[in-house]
Every structure is written in C-alpha cells, then in structure tokens.
Amino acid sequence: MAIAEWRQQLKLGEVSARELIDHQLARIAAVDPSLHAYLDVTADRARADANRIDEARAAGESLPPLAGVPLAIKDNLCTKGIRTTCSSRMLENFVPPYESTVTERLWQAGAVLLGKTNLDEFAMGSSTETSAFGATSNPWDLSRVPGGSSGGSAAAVASGECMAALGSDTGGSIRQPASFCGVVGLKPTYGRVSRWGLVAFASSLDQVGPFTTNVADAAELLQVIAGPDPRDTTCLNVAVPDYCSAISEPLSGVRVGLISECFEQNGLDSQVKASVLAAAEQLQSLGAELVEVSCPRFSDGIATYYVIAPSEASANLARYDGVKYGYRAQGAKSLAAMTALSRAEGFGSEVQRRILIGTYALSAGYVDAYYKKAQQVRTLIRRDFEAAFKTVDVLLTPTSPTTAFSVGAHADDPLAMYLADLLTIPANLAGLPAISLPCGFDHAGLPIGVQLITNVLEESRLLQVAFHYEQAADVMADRPQSDLIP
Q1: For 374-418, what is each residue's pLDDT tens digit?
Q2: Please, what are the domains in the chain?
Q3: What distance, in Å, lies between the first and last C-alpha atoms of the chain?
Q4: What is the pTM of this model?
Q5: Contact 486, 159 (CB under 8 A)
Q6: Which residues are part of the catalytic machinery?
Q7: φ/ψ of residue 464, rounded to 5
C-alpha cells in the first residue's frame, strides 16, 4: 500500500492506525525469524502511537502527513530511549538520551516506529553479514544476501514488514541493498538531510535516505526529512522544494546520459546490463533523449573511496575506547591495555580492518601519498560529473554489477565484497543525489536495479524520471512469486 492510499483510507475510517500496526507486527512475527531484518521490535510503542492517532482522528483533529505510517529505522540512527547498537558489540547496550533529527521529524509527521533494523557493523559492509548479532537474509532467496550495509531496512521493506524504512548511504549502502531486494532506495545530495544523530562512519560521505516500495513514497519521506538543521553544520541551508508535486511533471525533453565506463566493466553481469539498457530504452520511449557520456575517472572511485572512508572511520571510531561509553573489557591491568582490549573485543574483523587501513593512510609519511592523493582524485571525479551535467540532466547506470550473491560468497575475499559498490561509490564522492529502483529480474528470479544520478540538489528531477519509468515499466507486476514477498 502506498502512503497516499493509506492516508486516504485512514481519513475515511476504512482502516484504523491500530489495525495497520497490528497487521505489520503480525507480519514481522511471521517472517522475521527467517529474515532477521530487525534487531529490536518496538511493539508496545507502536501500538500506543497508533492508538493516539486513532483518537485524534475520532476527535476530528487534523492529522500530520505521515500519520500512522509504520516505519523501520536502521540501527545506526539514534532513537531516544531505544537501543542503538550499530550492530556492534561495542554499542550493544547503548541507549541514546536524544533523538536524531531525521527520526524526530518523522515522529512529528505522525510516523510510527516498528523497530530498529540490522546492518553491517558500523555500516561497514555490502552484505549485512558483518553484524555482530547475525546476518540478514534476502527475502527473494534466503540463501542470498540482502546487500549492505542497510540490508535489514531493505529486507524489511521488500518483505512487507514495514511500509518504508530509513537507511544510510556512505558508498552505496542504500542503493545496493535496494537493488538486491527489489525496492526503491534514495540517497539525497550530501547535506540535503541532516546527519545529526547518525552514528558516523565517514563524515564527508554519509547521508540518510529512505527505502520504499515505490517512488512516490520516497518523495513523501524525503519531503519530511529534508531541510536545514542548525545542529548539523554540514546540512545545507536551502529551501526544500515540493518533491511530491514534481514527480508528475512531463518527461519530454529530458536528456539521459549513459555512462560508457559503467557498461564496460569486466564484472558486469550480462543479464544486469541487458535489463538496465532496456530501462534506458523505456525512458526513450517516454520522450527522454539518450546520450552516451564519458566519466573517465568513474572506475577510480573504488580505490579513492577505500582510502578516504577508512581514514575518516579511523578518526570517528577513535572515541570508542572503553572509557566514556560502549563496551569495556574486563581484567586489563592498565588504561592502555583496557583500551586496546576493549577495541579488540568490541569491534568485529571488518571494522578493525578499516580502522587499520585508515590509520595507516593518515600516518606520518603516508598521508600525502594516500589520503591527500585520494582527495585530489575525488575532485577529478566530481569534475567529470560536472562536465557530464553540462550536456545531460540525468545519468543512468546499473546499481550493482550483479544481482544478490550467495551468503558467504565473499567472506574470505574483502576485495570482491568492496567491488559490489563499484557503481554506487562515485555519487557519494561527488555528493550527488542518486536513486535505485527495480528494472527487472535475472533467470534466478532475483531483482535487478537501475541507478539514476542527478546534479547537486536536483532530487526533484531524479524523482520525476524515476517515477515515470516506474509507472511505465511496472516491473513488479511480473515479479516471481514468493511467500516472503507480499
């Protein structure tokens, strides 16, 4: 059910907020033991919030735009009084004393929290296998991963365990799992949405965005969470346009650029390539003009990212020392030993790997050769995008080189895991808005995602093109049948 449809049903009294929440909680109870999308389910709070909405409607009060909409929140966004773990032993018992800006805005808009979703530890991963509390499965095929790091949120939306969810995207952590799970995933412009209350991974790359089952719902959620925030100095102080109205604007005359480097990758699956090119042709039939463009340094994004992101992670995660909060090891004989042991026991292997890489890249004698050089390449990648947007309005690529891979397939090969984000990382490095939405299925019945990218603060255009494609292609009408996919 789309948010607009739900809003109408609630207004007319056809379905109560409590009935919807009870239905969602029953769905979680039925399917989440197989998926493990949730770390915590806030059933009592959800029922109480739903009851208040029903009472307000019965009293004739005006309801906010997301009244009764059941949401799941990635467990690296702080929720006051509710455990926020980042799927790490380091924060296993951390209960924030404050609310993140984005979740605060959602609750003010009437949304209802169903629970917190699983993720790769500290959002470092592409499969949701590095969670300290167990992996999440893909609802299309339980032997496959849901993508990461926001795999829990993507799986929850795909399986009908919530109407929508929030995730965070540092190098593709919304778009790649959206592709793997057959849902819509939106990464806004860097600074379009506040990061206050988001547990930091790489501060110059992290951005919060929604998972939904359709583009219109993504516009609805972005409308609520976007906008200036004085608590976040990186949040842009610019007005928020009417995204919900913009999506229906005519598509005629829009120029869509196909990045040639993205379709020449050695690891690009032939079924993925064919499905994405078919999506481009669908846009052309709707009145868009297709243009081949080149971003020569696009493929340098992966190497650039894996210097910058670990470097920032090394600095951000230095605060977890076993003293102020978080996990503290017992039995150490000195402060230094306690700190070292707490970090060794509290962090998983992937987080430790990235801290070590980042610390090395920032160390004396190497910072110019690695971190500074990576920042210079980042500037060149951004300039390639700027040049492309002088001739086109939207860029089109596959979201991921493959469909969802098998559980454990890359467990012993970190490089193969990193390459899963090959096509999503450049948009983060340039701070650009991007969206993934379903464009087909492979022979195994697994979803394929197409990625659209626009220039800074052009979310309206992004959503417009995505919406018209979604309406014309109607990919999910021919989806394979599954007990875990409603």
Answers
A1: 999 999 999 999 999 999 999 999 999 999 999 999 988 988 999
A2: 3-247+435-443+466-478 (3.90.1300.10)
A3: 10
A4: 0.97
A5: yes
A6: 74, 149, 173
A7: -60, -50
